[in-house]
C-alpha cells in the first residue's frame, strides 16, 4: 500500500543542490529530478549529501513560449533517503522532504502546472503506443 500523501510527478529537469559537510564546508553538485511532489523530490546525481543533511535545491524550468528568461523552482529540506549502491533502483540518488517549493515568480505557477500536465500526457501517449505495438505482435 502506498503511504504517500501527495501525488508524485515524473520529471526530467536539471537541478543544482548544495549542503554543508560535517566539516562546515559548503558542497555543491548537480543532477536531475526523477520525480517531484508537493512534499519533496527524488534527485539523481553523481554526488549525494549524507542522510539528514539539510539540502537547498534549485530546479531549472524549461523556457516557455510566453517567457524567454530561465525560471527556477527552489526548495529545501532534509535528506530522508540516500541510494548510493549499485543494487538500489535509483543508484546515486537521494530524496528530500520539506518546505513547499517556491517559484521565482507568481506567474510561473500556471506554467509549472502546464509543464507537469504536458509531460504526463506525453508519457501516456508513449505507453499507449507501446501497448498497441505489443498487441499487434
Briefly summarize what is shown.
Helices cover 20% and strands 39% of the residues. It is α+β, with helices and mostly antiparallel strands and 137 residues long. Strands 2-3-4-7-6-5 form a six-stranded antiparallel beta barrel.
Walk me through what this model shows.
The protein has 137 residues and is of the alpha+beta class. The protein has one domain (9-135): Electron Transport, Fmn-binding Protein, Chain A (Pnp Oxidase, Chain A), CATH 2.30.110. 20% of the residues lie in helices and 39% in strands. It has a six-stranded antiparallel beta barrel with strand order 2-3-4-7-6-5. The model has no long low-confidence stretch (mean pLDDT 77).
The number of helical runs is 1
**If you average the pLDDT, what whole number results?**
77
Number of domains as seen in the coordinates:
1
CATH superfamily: Electron Transport, Fmn-binding Protein, Chain A
Outline type:
globular
State the low-pLDDT regions, or none. Answer: none
What are the key terms here?
137 residues, alpha+beta, Pnp Oxidase, Chain A, six-stranded antiparallel beta barrel, 1 helix, 8 strands, 39% strand
Give me the secondary-structure topology:
Layout (H helix, E strand, L loop, with lengths): L8 E2 L3 E7 L5 E11 L3 E6 L8 E8 L9 E13 L9 E5 L4 E2 L4 H28 L2
Antiparallel strand pairs: 1-3, 2-3, 2-5, 3-4, 4-7, 5-6, 6-7, 6-8
